[in-house]
Amino acid sequence: QVQLVESGGGVVPPGGSLRLSCVGSGFSVSNYPMGWFRQAPGKERELVASIRDIRAQINYEDSVKGRFTISRSAARNTVYLQMDSLKPEDTAMYYCKGDLWREFWGQGTQVTVSP
After folding, report:
1. When comparing pLDDT for 54 and 16, which is higher?
2. Cα separation of 10 and 73, whole Å?
3. Rounded (5°) CA angle 91-94-95
4. What value does the mean pLDDT take over residues 23-49?
5. 28, 50 in Cβ contact below 8 A?
6. 74: which residues sit within 8 A by CB, 6+ positions away?
7. pLDDT at res. 97
8. How far apart are the first and last CA of the chain?
C-alpha cells in the first residue's frame, strides 16, 4: 500500500529554519518524481520544489530559490525539504506528492512563520 507521511512542521520566527520529512512506504521514493507543495489559507496549492526520478533534476518555485533545498535518502526512503531564512509568507500547510501511476499525497504538515 502506497503511503506518504510528512512531519517536521512547526512555529518558527522569521529567519528561522525547519526541515520537513516525507517518508514513503509501498514504493521507492528514488524511482519516481517527488514534490513538495504548499497551500496557504484562501490560496491555491502551489509547487514549492520537485525532484525527478533517476536523473534527479530539481526545480524550485522562484520565491524559495536559494532558501529551500529538496533532497532524498534512498536508505530512509524519505524526501526532505530543508527550509532556511523563513519568511512570514512561507506560512502554509506543506504537502508531499509522489507521481506514480497516479498522484499520491500525504496528509500535510503545518509551517507557521511568526515573530
Report:
1. 16
2. 22
3. 165
4. 96
5. no
6. 28, 29, 30
7. 98
8. 40
